[in-house]
Design brief:
By secondary structure, the protein is α/β, with parallel strands linked by helices. Helix content is 58%, strand content 10%.
Length: 727
């Protein structure tokens, strides 16, 4: 395909309009937004002479070049040019034009996942708009703030900003702005899984957008309405809404956003198809239209997605070579504009296709490239409006990592049978690679959970853990769809054991076991405790005896993070009664093992005994905390003395090696909803992680964190990341 080099008619018209600005007239600049109708912002420069005219020309050129870059999907260049326009325009007292420029700049930052920079620019734009008394501009910026907050998962701020913006828009009787804000409100309702309410709001948004001839915005709202209906399993209605959206989009001008709307509609047809040929062909036709439009706009980002999604259709049709050709073109386009959020998809798709074609070494290399791309990128780019904690990193990206792990383990198993007498067996290399990839996944999953890249700075410490005493055995669990594998660290190296238990079976077993334990039903929990023992401990018994193991260390994953290891049972006794110590660590690379010397250890013990926020009292807590103080010394914070502020101060001023908290808590799949109760308010996981994190740079850092209460270990396996992450 040939990419045209001539400017498109719409841009020439836009530039002619701006020439009137340089002549002293006022002009309307239109830049489309991804969250509603086109963003209409009056930008005017006063007519002047000399250096003022030169500044006007510089700002104008930067604005035009930024617009062209944005339409090409080159957001970095758009930021550079719009930043120039902002700096030049700052020299003149034109708050309205500066506010609009800052809003455009924020959108480019948001497209790259730089949400803090986007928020800062929007806040500055809001202050200028409010100062100049531009209520419509204020409402538009508030709406953009709401959309940004939704993307970052801050639902409370989203609702607040939307309320303020809708109040302004309705007061101004601004139909276009109201349509845009209703679209964001629909996204908020979708994130709350309120499908029916979202459908009504999207339809209202589409109606208002069509009335103001914002056909792209109307199509977008209808496409999202189809998604709300799809969630309710009303597939015929969803298809009708998509057909209507496509009709609206035919009336919209070519633009970056229109191309992306076509991609969204094509993906929706694809989801609905379920092998139905007519809908598959419809999806292919829409993707092809998106590719043609992207080429005309020279938008290589949209073109990458269009080719990649077409490749996915060919993959499902088992036309693997055609799919591979399209996918490689998509990957090349993503590389040319440095779009990692697209590139990893096509690297992953390439790996699957090569695996299907039986070309395993290149498939492994492609999987490794996809993992490396994810590890290097801002994970915020993986999120979109309406993202929820349910769309977890494990659910969406776990298959990529574990497909690669599976290939490594298959190669190891194949070679293992052929290297019985080898001095340096090659299969061991594959075992180490498999474990390294799972460690990469754990790091990325933790980053995603906390919305923070700080854990990426952790230095690999696998070698240090493998050099532990010879009487220590480390068991690394790898959960695959069709089986579970255990990687055992022995003095002779890594050893693998396969357990014929699927991921789904394991999830069910752990859930039932936990429920039986909490119900204190010995007949139920003993049965399941013995099954779990047979899966994870009995295969180790020969090595435990041969190597005279004194410490058994487990590195659990997935649902096993919720498993109380000590409660496993061999039919005669619990695992905790065995003649070796038990330890659990969430990761090999994110933790560091060293002895805890009793003589240098002090404890900070905090908790609540009374009822807080309607919770049940914990009457034995005072005795628990006093006993810890008697054993280790240190400080006790009880009831009213236990607050987030007092805890923070104590950790800053003291030299505690142990932090023990006895309090009610709640752990959810969303880190923002996870907290501990104190005598004076909630202690969030995020704040606790900040308190604990500061101590890691001390000569004597915190060594042990204990959470002791009735609910601190409950929740799903993603909720357990709250505990593992702080640790």
């Amino acid at each position: 395909m040939v990419i045209p080099t001539q400017p498109r008619p719409r841009l020439r018209t836009w530039v002619r309009g701006w020439s009137r600005v340089l002549a002293g007239a006022c002009c309307i600049v239109i830049l489309s937004t991804g969250a509603g109708p086109d963003l209409v912002s009056p930008l005017s420069f006063s007519r002047g002479t000399g250096h003022i005219q030169a500044a006007e020309q510089t700002a104008f050129d930067a604005l035009v070049e930024g617009h062209e870059a944005f339409q090409r999907g080159d957001f970095e260049q758009a930021i550079a040019r719009w930043q120039t326009a902002v700096q030049v325009n700052a020299a003149a007292p034109q708050p309205h034009s500066q506010s609009s420029l800052l809003t455009h700049l924020a959108r480019a930052y948001e497209a790259l996942g730089h949400y803090s920079q986007a928020a800062n620019n929007l806040q500055a734009a809001l202050s200028l708009a409010e100062t100049s008394g531009e209520r419509a501009q204020t409402g538009l910026i508030l709406g953009h703030m709401a959309s940004l907050a939704l993307t970052t998962g801050d639902l409370e701020t989203t609702a607040q900003r939307l309320h303020e913006a809708l109040h302004l828009a309705r007061g101004l009787d601004d139909t276009g702005l109201t349509a845009s804000l209703l679209f964001t409100q629909g996204n908020l309702l979708m994130s709350q899984q309120k499908w029916r309410e979202a459908l009504d709001v999207y339809r209202h948004s589409a109606t208002l957008a069509a009335e103001t001839q914002h056909f792209g915005a109307a199509a977008r709202a209808l496409a999202y309405a189809a998604q709300a209906v799809e969630r309710q399993e009303q597939y015929a209605m969803a298809r009708g809404l998509l057909d209507e959206a496509l009709l609206q989009l035919r009336r919209a001008p070519s633009s970056h956003d229109t191309a992306y709307d076509l991609l969204a509609i094509g993906r929706a047809y694809h989801r609905l198809a379920q092998g139905e040929a007519v809908l598959v062909l419809q999806a292919a036709d829409v993707f092809t239209r998106a590719a043609d439009m992207a080429q005309a706009l020279q938008d290589r980002r949209a073109l990458s997605y269009a080719w990649g999604y077409l490749g996915r259709l060919y993959e499902e049709a088992q036309r693997y070579q055609d799919a591979l050709d399209l996918t490689r073109r998509a990957a090349l386009a993503a590389q040319q504009i440095h779009a990692p959020e697209a590139l990893y998809l096509w690297q992953w798709q390439t790996a699957r296709l090569l695996q299907r074609l039986g070309d395993l070494p290149p498939a492994i290399a492609a999987y490794e490239r996809a993992v490396a791309t994810i590890q290097s990128m801002r994970l915020e780019l993986l999120r979109s409006p309406g993202w929820t904690a349910a769309s977890s990193f494990r659910a969406s990206l776990g298959p990529l990592y574990f497909n690669l792990v599976d290939l490594f383990l298959q190669q190891a198993a194949y070679l293992e049978t052929r290297e019985q007498d080898a001095i340096y067996p090659a299969h061991a290399w594959y075992l180490h690679q498999a474990r390294a990839v799972v460690e990469q996944f754990k790091t990325a999953e933790l980053r995603d959970y906390f919305g923070d890249a700080c854990v990426a700075t952790a230095q690999p410490r696998v070698a240090a853990l493998e050099n532990v005493a010879p009487d220590t055995l480390i068991v690394y669990t790898v959960l695959l769809q069709d089986r579970t594998e255990l990687l055992i660290s022995l003095p002779t190296g890594l050893k693998r054991l396969a357990v014929s238990v699927t991921n789904a079976q394991l999830e069910d077993k752990v859930r039932i076991f936990r429920n039986a334990l909490e119900a204190q039903d010995p007949f139920r929990y003993l049965t399941h405790a013995q099954d779990l023992y047979a899966w994870f401990i009995r295969p180790l018994e020969a090595d435990l005896t041969t190597w005279r193991i004194q410490t058994l260390v487990f590195v659990p994953d997935g649902p096993l993070r919720l498993l109380p290891l000590a409660a496993l049972h061999d039919g005669q006794q619990f695992l905790i009664e065995k003649p070796y110590a038990l330890a659990v660590t969430p990761s090999l690379t994110l933790t560091e093992s060293q002895p805890l010397l009793h003589r240098t250890t002090q404890a900070l013990a905090a908790g609540i005994a009374g009822s807080v926020d309607g919770s049940l009292p914990l009457p034995r807590v005072p005795e628990e905390l006093r006993t810890i103080q008697q054993l280790y010394g240190g400080l006790v914070l009880l009831d009213h003395d236990f607050s987030p502020e007092r805890l923070d101060t104590a950790l800053r001023q003291g030299t505690f090696r142990i932090l023990h908290i006895a309090a009610h808590g709640h752990f959810a799949a969303d880190v923002s909803q996870s907290f501990l109760l104190t005598g004076q308010g909630k202690l969030t996981m995020t704040r606790l992680s900040e308190m604990v994190g500061r101590l890691r740079f001390r000569d004597q850092p915190l060594e042990l964190l204990t959470l002791s209460a009735c609910e601190t270990a409950q929740g799903d396996d993603r909720a357990a990341l709250g505990l593992a992450g702080v640790a």
